[in-house]
Amino acid sequence: MNKREGEGCPRKNADTGQDRDANTNPSSPVIAAFKVFQQELDTKHDKYERLVKISRDVTIESKRTIFLLHRVTSVPDPEDVLNEADVKLDGVRQKIGQIAEELRGEDIHQFHRAFTPGIQEYVEAISFLHYIRHRSLISLEEINARLVFMRAEKGAAEALPLGAQVLTFHVTPSDYLLGVADLTGELMRMCISSVGNGDIDTPFQLSQFLRQIHDGFSYIGNTGPYEVSKKLHTLRQSLGKVEDACYTLRVRGSEIPKHMLADVFSSRTTLIDPEEGVV
Questions:
Q1: Which residues are bridge partners to 151 per DSSP?
Q2: Which residues, in sequence order, are bridge partners of residue 149?
């Protein structure tokens, strides 16, 4: 029984009958162009993976800083905690400097998805520290002003000042908004911890501050990034829990012992219309 044509046999050129692979010219301009494309894509892929790893480190260290900052409600000297948080955030900024180094001469939008989770977490951490110190929201300009790095130019000796180059990393407005949206959850936890430690004033300060943030996000509406509208529902939940805590303090504060207030707030749920999460 004869095999069908082409089955088990090398593919041949229909006109000449020669093998296609054997007929490929390595010096062909088309082949040379595709080799350049392959090298370029491999380089971009490797850079993307490096940015993902750096972003993961930024996320981990930023989360550790946030956990550390939650101790300010329970330690006798909060300034020690804040100073330690400053040191940790300095280390995070050095990691962001590595991101700026990788993005030197590149289009940031091609790699934005690789490092945006870490940048959002950093914004959340630094804005949390800023609020604890100043009771205000840090601006995007203040964040970017701290992300200026000195790096040696490629091919220049690092010991020579003349071989230094200033690198800047700019947090995008969308990453800033998403980080601030996540901040509201940490402020809600800070409110519950403060009440548990007998601090009655902080919940009312947080309630007013969260209301201002909520009003700001309401102005954005559908004009902002899609992720912002998704996080607005969580923001409203955090605000509702803080306002519920303030209501309980004002109306029933004298009835409930201070050491039991935190348990009362943690066990109560805020009823929010699910449709409010859609803007």
A1: 165
A2: 167
Count Cβ atoms within 10 A of the Cβ of residue 228 and give its class: 0-12 exposed, 13-18 middle, 19 or more buried. Answer: buried
Cα–Cα dist 27/231, whole Å: 54
Structure tokens at 242: 């803080």
Is the model's pTM score more than 0.90? Answer: no
Tokens of residue 125, six digits: 């951490």
**DSSP assignment string, 59-119:** HHHHHHHHHHHGGGGTSS-HHHHHHHHHHHHHHHHHHHHHHHHHTTTS-HHHHHHHHHHHH
Give the length of the chain: 279
- Per the structure block, which two tokens stand in for 252? 């029933």
| Consecutive H or E run containing 166 | strand 164-168
Q: 3-state DSSP call for residue 149?
A: strand
Confidence band for 38, pLDDT divided at 50, 70 and 90: confident
106: tokens are 């590149």
Tens digits of per-residue pLDDT, 141-174? Answer: 999 999 999 876 655 444 445 556 889 999 999 9
Cβ count near 116 (within 10 Å): 19
> In the chain, what is the greatest distance between 2 CA atoms, to the nearest angstrom?
98
| Distance of alpha carbon 187 from the chain centroid | 17
SS3 call for 152? strand
